[in-house]
Target: Cell division ATP-binding protein FtsE
Amino acid sequence: MIQFDRVFKRYPPGIDALSDVSFEVGDGELVVLGGHSGAGKSTLLKLIAAIERPTTGSVLVNGQNVGALKRRALPFMRRNLGLIFQDQKLLFDRSVFGNVMLPLSIAGFPPGEAAKRVRAALDKVGLLAREKAMPIALSGGEQQRLAIARAVVNRPKLLLADEPTAHLDSETAADVARIFMEFHRVGVSVLVATCDAGLFADLAPRRILLDHGRLAA
Ligand SMILES: Nc1ncnc2c1ncn2[C@@H]1O[C@H](COP(=O)(O)OP(=O)(O)OP(=O)(O)O)[C@@H](O)[C@H]1O
Model:
């Protein structure tokens, strides 16, 4: 599903965020991406979503070289990804339902089918009873679960999450981790970047560890 082959990423004016990174993630795998702050975790996820492009090397997602895609092909490619990134904020002027509906409205789904999918996604993250609430009325953990519902409403085969449990207490973080496990169980590939070494520990997932932009042993 994901193949990195000798990937280097250098940001101007010469910061090496990733150096000679090669690995593969198979269909349906759950992988935790670990490493210190600044190790290159976010950069790695951004390369998969083609938010950034590799300086050299290739990033294949489902056999497609996403670093070489034309700009106009990106929205189609990203429709198959569920992104839970810190800069993708919730819309605070829309309800819980409205936030999850947005990606389907943009994709031009018929409203009836879209509403069904929105409720199914909210149900998966335990927020169906809050569909009419505004995001401001949700706790931090509920807001994070709402972000997950929005990311999965398109039914992507691959979920990418960047520090999805930042600012959550350990119990709430464990709830969020369990939701990712549920998606993994039904065959979705999940790649979660986190500084929290204890998260998922009892679930023993595969770990990829970055150290100053290099894969650690
Ligand atoms: N757009 C950018 N321009 C220049 N340098 C960048 C950019 N994005 C990241 N970097 C640098 O690349 C390195 C890796 O950053 P990255 O955000 O990928 O690490 P991270 O492991 O996700 O860190 P954190 O856990 O703190 O989010 C850091 O030195 C960072 O300062």
In short: The first strand starts at residue 2 and ends at 11. The CA atoms of residues 181 and 203 lie 8 Å apart. Residues 91-155 form one domain. The longest helix spans residues 170-185.
